[in-house]
Amino acid sequence: MDKDLLQLHRLIDGGLSPEDEKDIMQKIEADPRLQREFDGLVSAIDLLKTGERLPVDAAFSSEVMKKLPARKEPLGRRISGFLFGERVLRWNIASFAAVSAVLLLVVVSGLFYQSSGKSSRVADNVSQGSAVKTVALSFHAPEAKAVSLAGDFNKWSVEAGAMKRNSNGTWTIEVPLKPGVYHYMFVVDGEGWVSDPRAESYRDDGFGNKNAILRIDSI
Amino acid sequence: MKKRMMLAIFGLFLVYGISAAEPRDLGEIRTAIEKSSLPGEGKAALFKRASAAVGTGIPAADVAVIIKRGVSKGSAGKALEDALGAAITAKEKGLPVRPVLDRIEQGLAKGVPPERIAAATKQLVAKLSTADAIVNNLGKGGLKAGEQSEKGPAVHTVARALEKSIPEDAINKLGQKSIAQGASLSRLSATIDTMTFFVEMGMNLDRASELVMKAMNKGYSEGEMFMMQKEMSDMIRDKSNMNDIMKNMDMRMNSGTMGSGMGGKGMGGAPTSPGTHGMGGSGMGGSGMGGSGMGGGRRH
Question: Which of A216, B47, B64, B151 is an S-S bond match for B25, by CB 3.0 to 4.6 Å?
Answer without folding.
Answer: B64
